[in-house]
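Question thread 4412

I'm putting together a teaching handout and wanted feedback from people who do this every day. The idea is simple: show students a protein as raw sequence, then show them the structure tokens that encode its fold, then repeat with a second protein so they can compare. Below is the first pair exactly as I plan to print it.
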Amino acid sequence: MTMKARERVPATYEDLLQVPDHMIAEILDGDLEVSPRPAMRHAWNATTMTADLFSRFGGPPDGPGAPGGWWIVFEPELHLGVDVVVPDLAAWRRARLPELPDVAFVTLAPDWVCEVLSRGKERAVRVKKMPIYAREGVANAWLADPIEKLLEVMRLEAGRWVLVGAHAGDERVRAEPFDAVELDIGRWWMP
């Protein structure tokens, strides 16, 4: 007797909608990935990064005292092909997305994403999400590790991620695509 291999059934958006609200649900490479809300260290890192970047880049281009020119969004739901991803932060250049749509999810790939790494999430980010971002042409990505107090800055070149820089602790950096302003990354890490 031969056994047929069980055919893998890709997760659907209906599957995602069944996940309780206190969890984060994504569809990565056909698999439903569910994770708990982030711990406080993770949340602190994402919140302080958002505030810092938004205050300088979140306004219209060439605003007073800040370069502006970006839409910076905390935990947006992105529908990229068959995948549904929720990066910790994402940003679109206003030149590419003149108005931020008032919708539940966005189908236009962002120009930049940031994933804050936490225990149990790093593998999914590096193995599943980063290839999705590359496939969709996201130009820049940051990986922030709040435990190691480490920021990895990456650029997409010929469909592959290239590490542009790794910064740790309380360094002051110019990290693309936000390199018009020096950033004090030490403010992002929970004391």
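The second pair follows. I'd like the answer to focus on this one:
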Amino acid sequence: MRPGAARSAASIGRVSEVHELSRAAYDRLQAEFEDLTTRGRVDIARRIEAARELGDLSENGDYHAAKEEQGKMEGRIGRLSVILKNAKVVEEGEAGSDQVRVGCVVSVRYEGDTDIEKYLVGSIEERGTEHPVMSPGSPLGQALLGAKPGDVVSYQAPGGQLRVEVVGIDA
């Protein structure tokens, strides 16, 4: 097997991963995708053309900066395309409010601790909420899915086995 083949195969498996998103996050990502593929591409093409007109490209900082920005933008477009293609919009109340599910805010207490922490269970694309986002694919996220208030779940962390109690769930 050639070097990197296993990595490529693993990457292919992640491409079809379902991305569960709230309606608001899906709509925001769709709008971002449309903006980047229309206005964004036109704007960056104009910047590259204007930088080319300045002369020698080997020492042209404006040209190199515009090309770097273009690469980042195309990477984001590709990422958004995959997310939107494999998106599942999770509506509030879809799985009931008595269990941890994607889109809810879960309050947990780690074993041996008195502090309660709250997390939004969902895609990293849900960022911008008042709570930190916990991926449902993370070890703790997987352990919490389907749990009810009062349940204690355990998961394997890099430092060993951890246990958390589900204190509450907000839809």
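Top answer:
Good format. For the second protein you could add a caption like this: Residues 23-52 form the longest helix (30 residues). The chain has two domains: 5-89, 105-170.
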